[in-house]
Amino acid sequence: MNGMSKLNRIKPLTNYMFNLLFVILSLISILPVVLVFMASISSETSIAKYGYQFWPEEFSFVAYSFLWNERASIFQALFVSVCVTVVGTALGVLLTTTMGYVLSRLNFRGNGFYTWVVFIPMIFNGGMAANYVVVSKFLHLNNTIWALILPLCVSSFNVIVCKTFFRTTIPDSIIESVKIDGGGQLTIFLRIVMPISKPLIATIALFLSFGYWNDWFQSSLYISNKALLSLQAMLNNIQKNIEYIANNPSAGVSLQQYKNSMPTEPVRMAIAIVIVVPIACVYPFFQRFFIKGLTIGAIKG
């Protein structure tokens, strides 16, 4: 026993190197966010003269004041992003887990056919034009919130992950015992499979929520109504053309005056912070289940 304990013991130097590596990786992840935040509270002249700095020559909160003056459109876009993320994640988890569970059952007659139906789009797809025609011409989802939700709702990769998890983690004996007791497939799925699959659900929910929250492309394709633009789409429009906000002034000033008073670079950085903070606050609640979901398939016995 002492021999095995000594064999598995990490040497102090190795432990120190691992800790140093994790500190470096943490800094690589955190410092860009810190730099963006510092740029958002820098003055326009400081950025123009010295560039982005971790400690700017001149501080200014004009960017956040500007966003507060535009709070009507910002909060509207934030509301759209939150609604799309919450509804899309819930619907996506429901559809993905049900599809994965059905495909994991070997006695399902259409198992082979539907597995290929799910797998092929993961390798090949119809392209952007076909997707646009289906969503806009056949489903008529243009300028509706469903155009931001349904195209990203189900991913072939997530379905395959669910299928593999259910096949390798849920024992057939449990399902058979419930069937003997008279339980149907819906009862098995809701009362047996789902409670056991919390790590999987959290992992899929995290993937979906990140995808919905960071998406701006669907808005650029299907949304022309400004009231339905997500926060990310608004940021993308600002980055492409700062006149997007200038064309919607909230004060009774001329367009040129409004543009001249606009701190362009700090505003872009401030909106980036506004986008990052909500999802960063949510992630710690998923982290425990996310890590368990990634590692559960590697543990046997």
What share of the residues lie within helices?
over 70%
Number of continuous helical runs: 17
Which CATH top level class of the largest domain fits? Mainly Alpha
How many distinct beta strands? 0
**Beta-strand content bin:** under 5%
What summary fits the major beta sheet?
none
Determine the CATH topology of the largest domain: MetI-like fold
CATH-level-4 superfamily name of the largest domain: MetI-like
Task: Describe the model.
By secondary structure, this protein is an all-alpha fold. It folds into two domains: 2-50; 62-298, Orthogonal Bundle (MetI-like fold). It contains 17 helices and no strands. The longest helix has 34 residues, at 71-104. The two termini are 21 Å apart. Residues 296-301 have low confidence and may be disordered.
Task: Give a topology summary.
Layout: H1 2-8, H2 12-40, H3 44-50, H4 62-69, H5 71-104, H6 111-123, H7 127-138, H8 146-149, H9 156-169, H10 172-180, H11 185-196, H12 198-214, H13 217-222, H14 231-240, H15 243-246, H16 255-260, H17 264-295
Helix pairs in contact: 2-17, 4-17, 5-9, 5-12, 6-9, 12-17, 14-17
At a glance:
Residues 78-286 form the ABC transmembrane type-1 domain. The protein is mainly alpha-helical. The chain has helices at residues 2-8, 12-40, 44-50, 62-69, 71-104, 111-123, 127-138, 146-149, 156-169, 172-180, 185-196, 198-214, 217-222, 231-240, 243-246, 255-260, 264-295.
